[in-house]
Specification:
- This protein is of the alpha/beta class.
- The protein folds into two domains: 5-44 and 290-386, Aspartate Aminotransferase, domain 1, CATH 3.90.1150.10; 46-288, Aspartate Aminotransferase, domain 2, CATH 3.40.640.
- The chain has helices at residues 5-8, 14-27, 46-55, 72-86, 92-95, 103-113, 129-136, 161-166, 185-198, 227-230, 255-268, 274-285, 287-312, 335-346, 375-386, and strands at 33-34, 96-99, 119-124, 140-145, 167-172, 201-205, 231-236, 249-253, 316-317, 324-328, 348-349, 351-352, 363-367.
- The relative contact order is 0.17.
- The structure holds pyridoxal-5'-phosphate (PLP).
């Protein structure tokens, strides 16, 4: 049976292929140092697991979650967190939606708004889901290049008016995967003004908002005046609490897109397992004591890898946020070719930048989520192995 056109037109999910390649190598007994997929290697905190084991005994969690937006305890905890962390006031009944991780919501918001012929403004390079879902809905992604010369921020002024007229959504993702760039409130202000002018919705993917290295905390787009009419922001516990497998997050912002998302979800997934929502509420309640410990782990790894690459003379962007180093490929090498060379000659797994879009060509991404008994020693070993390569930048 021929698959539907919408499935035929989207590419395979890149990380499935990378995971399969890794599994093959490991099965052959090769010792890889894995800077591939951004999946935290540290365990979920004990206090979250304890909350989960209590919650799972509450029989209401064994049934469908019929609340619509999520358990009241979870929504209240999100509202408290958004107030104390960002100074943002939200009405939990209209402006927050519990989600199954962030990815689910990124997909479903596009289903809610994108019709055939519509455009979606997508950063390039970027997490592949924004662009793929535009195609899946019969629309198309219009790329906004993220250039090193511009601090990996999009130039909204370069978007032609004819494109903006056809666009329904504008995607942002700061702190940024894959470049590690952070944005300040000025970009969010510009995006909100752009959305008002062109009547579109700004979707800010805040998956990495708690992974940062400087003294100033990355902001929420909802801090911008008027954002609560045109912006929706996607948060996740995946990276902040080492909970990728749990599949839990939330969307917050303007009431209309929140309700649209909620309507899609009600027809598709019936919500997040209630016990997980209660465990997520317990996690957020201890955010302030937990998050600095998480950041310190990545800071040590970031510094070790950045110093190591600098010592080799490799041009790497030292991330301001998220846990990725965006490294330029040597002269004459494509990102895929260089990634292949690192894998075959050094046993070092990285992601080719072209996976993130045309403007990712010429780079590789190295994740700081390193599965190893001693990740700092693994970084040192990887740097030593990479130092054996003959490369010119
Ligand atoms: N957004 C970005 C930019 C990501 O890099 C990822 C995962 O790596 C996600 C969303 C998905 O996160 P979640 O586990 O919350 O679905």
């Amino acid at each position: 049976m021929e698959r539907a056109y919408r499935l035929r037109t989207i590419p395979p999910y890149p990380f499935r292929e990378i995971a399969a390649l890794k599994a093959q190598k490991v099965a052959r007994g090769e010792r890889l140092i894995d800077f591939g997929i951004g999946d935290p290697d540290q365990p979920t905190p004990d206090f979250v697991m304890e909350a989960m084991s209590r919650a799972i005994r509450e029989s209401r969690t064994h049934q469908y979650d019929e609340t619509g937006h999520g358990y009241p305890e979870y929504l209240a905890s999100i509202a408290r967190h958004m107030r104390s962390r960002f100074g943002v006031e939200l009405d939990p009944s209209k402006q927050i939606q519990s989600t199954i991780g962030c990815k689910e919501a990124l997909v479903h918001i596009e289903w809610a708004y994108v019709d055939p012929g519509d455009l979606v403004l997508v950063p390039d390079p970027a997490y592949s889901v924004y662009k793929v879902q535009a195609t899946f809905c019969g629309g198309a992604a219009y790329p906004m290049p993220l250039l090193e010369a511009n601090g990996f921020l999009p130039d909204l002024g370069a978007i032609p008016a004819s494109v903006a007229r056809r666009a329904k959504l504008l995607w942002l993702n700061y702190p940024n995967n894959p470049t590690g760039a952070a944005a300040d409130l000025a970009l969010f202000e510009e995006a909100v003004a752009f959305a008002r002018k062109h009547d579109l919705i700004v979707c800010q993917d805040a998956s990495y908002v708690e992974v940062y290295y400087g003294d100033s905390q990355p902001p929420s787009i909802l801090q911008v005046a008027g954002a609560n009419e045109v912006a929706i922001e996607f948060h996740s516990l995946s990276k902040t609490f080492n909970m990728t497998g749990w599949r839990v997050g939330w969307a917050a912002g303007a009431a209309e897109p929140i309700e649209a998302l909620s309507k899609v979800k009600a027809n598709v997934d019936s919500g997040t397992f209630g016990a997980i929502q209660l465990a997520a509420a317990a996690a957020l309640d201890r955010y302030a004591e937990w998050a600095p410990r998480l950041r310190e782990v990545y800071r040590q790894r970031r510094d070790a890898l950045a110093e190591g690459l600098k010592g080799l003379g490799w041009p790497a962007t030292v991330p301001e946020g998220a846990f990725y180093l965006w490294v330029r490929a040597p002269q004459g090498e494509t990102s895929a070719g260089f990634a292949q060379k690192l894998l075959e000659e050094c046993g070092v797994l990285v992601v080719p930048g072209a996976v993130y879009g045309d403007w990712g060509e010429g780079y590789i991404r190295m994740s700081l989520t390193i599965m190893a008994d001693d990740p700092l020693a693994a970084i040192a070993e990887a740097v030593e192995r990479m130092g054996q390569l003959e490369v010119t930048f």
